[in-house]
């Protein structure tokens, strides 16, 4: 038995008067020895017939779509998607098929899919693998071939360009030369895909190493996006750094490769921010011949990119701040009080910023040792915590009510901010009596 089939699903297959198959990713992953948790189903049967039978077997039907032959249903623990055997006709690279024709032929259904390694079927009732196109050989060889001529497959659906990179990254597969050239020739088709789908695929790609434990798989996927020219359409601002040299005493790689390697070495929490951390460099170099100010320009450009991709607003805001702050104290010469103020100002993203700093440092010369700036900052931060430094106004030992009568209402917030800054430099000042005395001194100066 290749797949462990849930009892209710096996019961459904037994009661059907047609063969019911698990298709695609779960079969591929089982052959690889990977864990699998998605069960996409297929059969030479109408969606309405499958839905009725599933309901009789105790499944909850969440949606039946006659036009595409799709049924979404659940057993309460796992979700399933069923699709009738069919043939698809696409319109110029758009993801959704323009026309769907149903068929009883498994070979026809297999050929409508993207890659042979995904055109594998497991007959639940017979407990056997069905391999219409020779996909098992590709899985064994860890190769990716298209189900038909590569140019035809990629021309149909532009999203397949990113799926190629993501699935190779997740599974440790390598595309054939024909597959690569087919993707490269059709790279512009990605422009037909909705930004939300591109963002979803990019996010999955950036975490591809986590699915099956393929070390640096996400980096391999990014390199494949670059090699097929898809990156030039998805992130043209970043791709502009390809071949752009950097100072050899600090960098072993050009601007684009440095960015890809920053994502390679980055913690999963900051992969996207690390990928974009130097996105301002190409802009600055092309406009001024220098990289000076690329952190500020990068923050602006990163914001534009994430808005274009319709990324979640909170995530985008954090990424923009990380890109804008990643250059601070690069040479380690900032004085302690300035670092204290910087840490306090960025306390809510401080831990993430350390991760971006580390990714940036490691990507310069593939050095995985701790970034010296991090060592310095963490020493200062430990001192601040030991002193009881307040990082927010809420942590101050006084509040606005304590300043009423000393300052007009419009000055209270400003005064609390000034007192907070004093405490950031010296945590021992965060005592009620000391803060009140300091406030009285400030009031006297303004009198």
TrEMBL record:
GO molecular function: metal ion binding; nucleotide binding; nucleotidyltransferase activity; tRNA binding
Domain tRNA nucleotidyltransferase/poly(A) polymerase RNA and SrmB- binding: 186-239
UniProtKB keywords: Magnesium, Metal-binding, Nucleotide-binding, Nucleotidyltransferase, RNA-binding, Transferase, tRNA processing
Domain Poly A polymerase head: 20-144
Co-factor requirement: Mg(2+)
PANTHER family attached to this UniProt entry: CCA TRNA NUCLEOTIDYLTRANSFERASE 1, MITOCHONDRIAL
Protein name: HD domain-containing protein
Domain of life where this protein originates: Bacteria
Family as reported in the entry's similarity comment: Belongs to the tRNA nucleotidyltransferase/poly(A) polymerase family.
HD domain span: 255-361
Presence of keyword Nucleotidyltransferase: yes
Single GO BP term: tRNA processing
Organism of origin: Candidatus Borkfalkia avistercoris
